[in-house]
Design brief:
two-stranded antiparallel ribbon
């Protein structure tokens, strides 16, 4: 019985909200919702994401500011 309980707890991933992700990465919640729209697991009005997948998607994206360099 203990093995089954431990197995279920390992398989279940705790989802985190867009606000928590925004606070960790220093970006707005609107940006988090826009970039992670494909992996949203929450219902209408709730924006919940798998933290591992969200970290991978946000780490890959680079934000470029300003104009392009003129060579």
């Amino acid at each position: 019985v203990e093995a089954i309980i431990q197995l279920n707890s390992v398989c279940k991933v705790e989802l985190i909200s867009a606000a928590e992700i925004a606070q960790r990465h220093g970006i707005s919640t609107a940006t988090v919702r826009r970039k992670l729209a494909a992996i949203n697991q929450g219902s209408e009005g709730k924006f919940l994401y798998d933290p591992v997948v969200a970290l991978q998607l946000l780490k890959d994206s680079k934000t470029k500011r300003g104009r392009k360099r003129a060579n």
